[in-house]
């Protein structure tokens, strides 16, 4: 799933008033890249563990951890908890849940944040 699809799902979850409890974040994993742009095979063990945040837990101190919906992240190599959630179009999205302390790197993607805000506006919800 692409980051652009992830922010659409984030807006749907916000619209559905879904909440994540504790100091956890939920994200959608990026599509694994198994071939480099030069055509070389990348072994599964070194494929980057990255994703896009779609939910932030109610107990996460966002000032301390500086995470928000639409941020891109790198997370621990250990397998996070996977949960399937229904979307409004009837399909299912798999989200992954980790403790906020298990994040290695996060970066703000202003373009994705704007897409998320626009999607929420289209669904007429406050963020």
Q: SSE order, as H and E?
A: HEEHEEEEH
Q: Let me know the CATH homologous superfamily.
A: GroES chaperonin
Return the CATH topology: 10 Kd Chaperonin, Protein Cpn10, Chain O
| Overall spatial form | globular
**Percent in helix:** 10-25%
User: Ranges with pLDDT <50 over ≥5 residues?
Assistant: none
- Number of helical segments with 4 or more residues: 3
Beta-strand residue percentage: 25-35%
Largest sheet: 6 strands, antiparallel
Mean pLDDT: 77
Span of the ends, CA to CA: 23 Å
Strand arrangement within the widest β-sheet reads: 4-5-1-2-3-6
Radius of gyration, Cα only, in angstroms?
A: 15 Å
By secondary-structure content and strand pairing, the structural class works out as alpha+beta
Please count the beta strands (DSSP E, at least 2 residues each).
6
Q: Regarding CATH, which class?
A: Mainly Beta
CATH architecture: Roll
Number of domains as seen in the coordinates: 1
Compact summary:
The protein is an alpha+beta fold and 127 residues long. It has helices at residues 3-15, 62-65, 110-122; strands at residues 24-29, 50-56, 72-75, 81-86, 92-99, 103-107.
Description:
The chain is of the alpha+beta class and 127 residues long. The two termini are 23 Å apart. The chain has one domain: 10 Kd Chaperonin, Protein Cpn10, Chain O (Roll), CATH 2.30.33.40. It has helices at residues 3-15, 62-65, 110-122, and strands at 24-29, 50-56, 72-75, 81-86, 92-99, 103-107.
């Amino acid at each position: 799933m692409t980051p652009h699809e992830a922010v659409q799902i984030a807006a749907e979850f916000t619209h559905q008033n879904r909440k994540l409890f504790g100091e956890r974040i939920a994200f959608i994993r990026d599509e694994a890249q198994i071939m480099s742009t030069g055509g070389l095979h990348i072994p599964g063990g070194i494929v980057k563990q990255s994703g896009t945040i779609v939910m932030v837990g109610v107990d996460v101190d966002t000032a301390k951890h500086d995470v928000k919906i639409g941020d891109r992240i790198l997370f621990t190599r250990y397998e996070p908890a996977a949960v399937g959630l229904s979307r409004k179009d009837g399909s299912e999205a798999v989200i992954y849940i980790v403790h906020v302390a298990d994040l290695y790197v996060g970066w703000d993607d202003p373009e994705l944040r704007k897409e998320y805000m626009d999607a929420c506006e289209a669904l007429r919800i406050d963020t």
